[in-house]
Write a structure and sequence with these properties.
- The chain has nine helices and three strands, in the order αααααααβββαα.
- With 191 residues, the protein is mainly alpha-helical.
- The chain folds into two domains: 73 residues, DNA polymerase, domain 1 (Orthogonal Bundle); 94 residues, Orthogonal Bundle (hpI Integrase, Chain A), CATH 1.10.443.10.
- A three-stranded antiparallel beta sheet has the order 1-2-3.
- The protein starts with a helix and ends with a helix.
Length: 191
Amino acid sequence: MESPFEKYSGELAARDLRPQSRERYPTILAKYRDWLGSNALCPELGRAFIAELRDKGYAHRSIGLYASALNGFHAFLGEQLGYKHRKRKTLPPYFAWEDAESLLALRDCPLTGIAERVRERDFAVTTRMARAGLRRSEVTKLRVGDVSFSAGHLIVRDGKGGKNRQIPLHDALAAALRPFCEATCCPRARA
């Protein structure tokens, strides 16, 4: 007979979850199952598990992830965990523009053993992140068809919260991207 953990894992596989959640939830539930040992599942023990994570010094965001996984699991069992995790309002890390300029200036430093095309690619990636404020995952998802030189914008697909957004195309970013976009067959990028 399947355990509640196995049944819920099957349920998770059928849900439309973000890839990160799909990877992390089973690991969290396995830790919870191991922590429970022979104790019966109940919301009180779920809250005790989260409290122990806090006592061990887990980061606030990690505790939120654990709470989210356990809330969903106990809801699947028809129980309310009764734990509300408040997200902290924090500003993203800030960097001085001079730091970004210093990083971008490294392109002009001669590095032995690195092909010019690779240096140009790395510069284009770094410029995208610095000039457009893109996250690492957003940079990797950017495609040539998402860049419009004529309209002066690029489309970021599946960004934070799974949302798409359109952002202005900075002149320095356009200059860094143009050689890569023109090397492809995409007529939209050449416009």
